Structures are given as C-alpha cells and as structure tokens.
Amino acid sequence: MASPVASITVAEAVWDQIKSSRAASDDHLSILHFLFGKNLERATRIVDQGGVRKVSASPSGRSLFLVIGESRRKEEYICFPEHHCTCYSFFYDVVNRGEQLCCKHQIAARLAEAVGQFEEVEVSDEQLAMMLSKL
C-alpha cells in the first residue's frame, strides 16, 4: 500500500485540477476511487443529493462545511475537509484504525467545493463560534 503522505499528495493534486476546471473527469474520478474506494462513491451520492453546505463567517472569512449523512436520520456533520469530521467513521476508521485517509463527508466537502456544487450560508463570527462550541 502507498504511504498516506504520498496518497494525500496525489489527492491534493487531483483536487486542484478539478477545482481549476470546475469539473471532475473520468480520469480524476478513477484516481480518487483508487485512493478512497467506496467512500468516494458515497461522497458523490451526498454531493449529487445536495447534501453539502459551506458556512462562511463574516467578517473573519472563516468557513466550515455541514455535510448530511446518508443514514435515514440525515444527521449533519461539521466538517473541515482537510483535517476533521464529527462523524463516527472519522474517529474509528481514520484516527483510531488508520484504515482510511478520510471519511466520506470530508470527500463530499472537497468534491462539492472543487466543482462548486454546494449551498453557501453566511453567518456572523459569533454564530460560527456557537456552532463550534457544540463540538
């Protein structure tokens, strides 16, 4: 298996290419599928169903993503795509076991941002701080 650092470097290059063209080619998706497997498929479903919102705070410009899960409960997870997600899978598969590079919510947020397919929500810095205080 490739090292996580090498895999993340490849993924970053692909995300940059997708973002610059605002479209994901079959080649991009093949590479991402190789890196992320079934989590990519799940993430694309989330994006296709409009399950990603980008919350941007003013005046700081800080942002995070709210990503809806696929379960019947439709839970919403706070996601920092490159670093953290509040879902169980992030802690279990990514942090504890190291079996995945990231969870499907992180991938969904990255994909949605790269192709511009997300709902934009503007909040105050205070509102964002309140959201984060509930973590």
TrEMBL record:
Keyword Transmembrane helix: no
Top-rank lineage group of the source organism: Eukaryota
Biological-process GO terms, alphabetical: double-strand break repair via homologous recombination
UniProtKB keywords: Metal-binding, Zinc, Zinc-finger
GO cellular component labels: Shu complex
InterPro entries listed in its UniProt record: Znf_SWIM
SWIM-type domain boundaries: 65-114
A GO molecular function held by the record: zinc ion binding
Residue stretches spanning the membrane: none
Protein name (record): Zinc finger SWIM domain-containing protein 7 isoform X1
